[in-house]
Amino acid sequence: MSNTDTLPNWEKLVQKQLKTEDIYSVLKKENLEGINVKPFYDSVQKPLVNLPKVEENTHLVAKYHESLEDDVFAFILDQNVENLEQKTIFVNNVDLAGHIRPKEEDQYFSLIDVFDEKTASINDQLVKELLSKEFKRSICVDISLHQNAGAAIYQQLGIALAKTKELIEMYGSEIVNKLIFRIAIGGNYFFEIAKLRAFKIVFNQLSKEYGLDEIPYIFAETSLRNKAVSDNENNLIRSTLELASAMIGGADAVFSNNYLVDRSTENSEEISFKQQIVLAYESIINVFEDAANGSYYVEDITQQIAEKSWALFVEIEEAGGYLELLKQGIIQKKIFEHAVEEQKWVEEGKIKLIGVNLYPKLDVKKTIEQLYNEKEIKAVRWAEMFE
Questions:
Q1: CA nearest neighbour of 234 among 368, 361, 366
Q2: Strand ranges (DSSP E) for 232-292?
Q3: Which residues form the Methylmalonyl-CoA mutase alpha/beta chain catalytic domain (predicted)?
Q4: Were 59 and a residue from 115, 253, 280, 356 both cysteine, which residue would form a disulfide, CB within 3.0 to 4.6 Å?
């Protein structure tokens, strides 16, 4: 059967099964991103080239613990640990970054955000100090906070580009290959795969404006947004899917936040890390360069997200840039409006969380006003409304 026959045949079959001619209004799937999702795909208008990543294999990153030294290749470090040669280290502490003197063969990356969202500024002293280090990637652009605060996918990527532009304007285009992007991966499986792929497209487009041809280094971590204090096992399932999205989307490094929201144990940290091991060694999805390439659905939403993200970036730039709009409270308000809309969907049950708004264990409810503030970008979990 040829491609031209596929869609009419499918439509006839579905019309018969749904007993209506108007199948598209029945099958329409709403989303808060403003992305047009079709119920059936038999082609893609503009096939994308393979989207590369910086690292050949996705780094599986664990929080440092002595017992993991022999088995784990990449660590997040909050305090100084001697003799970690041959390991990839993601530094997560300002004081530690100041003391580290990397040996040449070591691979050090900074996860310290150089932007201060509260004062709407870049920490110039910190940037200069980090650039003076022999780190592979020394300047972190953190948009994980924005995802956890409820920003839309296109808002996260538009902000990432706008933050990059601020850094280029202050430190020159040579900073581009010193950047590492810390991104939180939410629970919308295919959209999150498309998010990382779209980011590669728009970041490359921005780099070309400066005569470069760069792709972003992506450090992806599991979201806090959809996690709940009760039903920890559901948190594990959610974060496993998020890790899969990150690996399939082409992240260069992945990290699992602890699935126990309100506490941390040695056992829970080990299990959180082992989620990555299962995905990498049982499913072998951390070695592919662009596993989603060729999927009509993912290709289509990738391109839509890329277009919306770029449009927002242009809008931010024309209005004065990220820091200027942060000072005016405009960025905070944009994120707030989307976050509140999302929370309403949770409240109404359009977004379902087992054990929270579906089969809830407790009858507790906070208002949206108690949870959100339009003047502040702060992480809020959906489940906090019911906890």
A1: 361
A2: 253-255
A3: 138-381
A4: 253
Contact at 8 Å (CB) between 138 and 129?
Answer: no
Short-list 280, 284, 214, 218, CA closest to 249:
218
State the Cα torsion 36-37-38-42 to the nearest 10°: 100
pTM, 2 dp:
0.94
CB proximity list for 41: less than 8 A, separation 6 or greater: 296, 297, 300
CA-wise closest residue to 286 among 50, 42, 53, 45: 53
**Cβ-Cβ contacts under 8 Å for 109 (sequence gap 6 or more):** 88, 89, 90, 91, 135, 136, 137, 138, 180, 217, 219, 253
Q: Which SS3 state, helix, strand or coil, does residue 330 take? A: helix
3-state secondary structure 333-360: HHHHHHHHHHHHHHHHCCCCCECCCECC
Tens digit of pLDDT for each residue in 142-190? 999 999 999 999 999 999 999 999 999 999 999 999 999 999 999 999 9
d(CA 319, CA 217): 28
- Residues 266-271 have a mean pLDDT of 88
Q: Do the beta carbons of residue 211 and residue 173 sit within 8 Å? A: yes
Q: Are strands 253-255 and 59-63 parallel, antiparallel or unpaired?
A: parallel
Q: Tell the CATH superfamily of the 59-296 domain.
A: Methylmalonyl-CoA mutase (3.20.20.240)
Q: In this structure, what token pair is assigned to residue 67? A: 């017992």
Distance CA 367, CA 370 (A): 5
Measured distance CA(256)–CA(236) in Å, rounded:
10
pLDDT digit string (tens) for 295-350? Answer: 999 999 999 999 999 999 999 999 999 999 999 999 999 999 999 999 999 988 89
Calpha distance 236→232 (Å, rounded): 7
Look at residues 292, 312, 296 and name the one whose alpha carbon lies nearest to residue 196: 292
β-strand partners of 168: none
Beta strands in 78-177 (DSSP E): 88-91, 107-110, 115-116, 121-122, 139-142
List the chain domain ranges. Answer: 59-296
pLDDT number for residue 215:
96
